[in-house]
Amino acid sequence: MRNIRRSIRLILFLIIGSILHYALPQHDVVRVVNTYQERQDLNDWTRVFWARPDDQSATLINRDVQFIQTIRKQSMLFGFVSRETTEVMVYRNEDTGWSWPFYFKFDTANLQTEADDLVSTSEEPKWAVMTHYGWRNEYLSAFPNAIAIRPVSGPDVLIIPWFNIGFLVVLMIAFLFLRAMWMQFRERTVDPLADKVGDRMDHMNADLSERKGRVSRWLGTWRKK
């Protein structure tokens, strides 16, 4: 039973962690290489990786999507420590509108213009911080969605995700608060009720045992005769 509880908790932890990792904002130090627009098919289950900025997009099987091609500075320790190596990263640029995740992004055209203005070459690089959410998966044709971009002085800029830190702290406080409420409710309501049920079961078992004893004694008197 204990192993089942641990397995359920681990599965819940992985699910919640995956949702938070997908939805919370991430920051990459990038050099913009190119921007373009391409028509994407949205007629299979991978549609979940694309935004739904309005009601009409929920019924379309394809639409034009803007993309931003970049060279991203690789990092480690959750993005705090930058590395000398780089990799290719492509971002989609879609409005989120009023849908989930709730970034309320309506400035796709402005962001595409800002990205165009930051296009540079490796000889004369312009570095920027790209804020985005989502995952990149080549096999599923999934792209992270760019939320904002801002120029920085160089590729070694330190980025501290204050929003994520604050959000996780608030989430942990809320979890502890709800857990304390549940423990108090359990102590005052569930445990006494369980004790009453247990006592009643004990009385029933004792009464049943006593009745069985009476029947056995009565049968014993007949065996003697």
What features would you highlight for this structure?
single chain, alpha+beta, five-stranded antiparallel beta sheet
Q: Overview of this structure, please?
A:
- The chain is α+β, with helices and mostly antiparallel strands and 225 residues long.
- It is 42% helix and 26% strand.
- It is elongated and about 105 Å long.
- The two termini are 51 Å apart.
- The mean pLDDT is 82.
Q: How many DSSP helices?
A: 3
Question: Gyration radius, to the nearest Å?
Answer: 30 Å
> Into how many domains do the coordinates divide?
2
Please estimate the helix content: 40-55%
Globally, the shape reads elongated
Beta content: 25-35%
- Average of per-residue pLDDT values: 82
**Quick one: how many beta strands?**
5
Structural class: alpha+beta
Sequence of strands across the biggest β-sheet: 3-2-1-4-5
Order of helices and strands: HEEEHEEH
User: What is the first-to-last residue Cα distance?
Assistant: 51 Å
Contiguous runs where pLDDT drops below 50 for at least 5 residues: none
Largest sheet descriptor: 5 strands, antiparallel
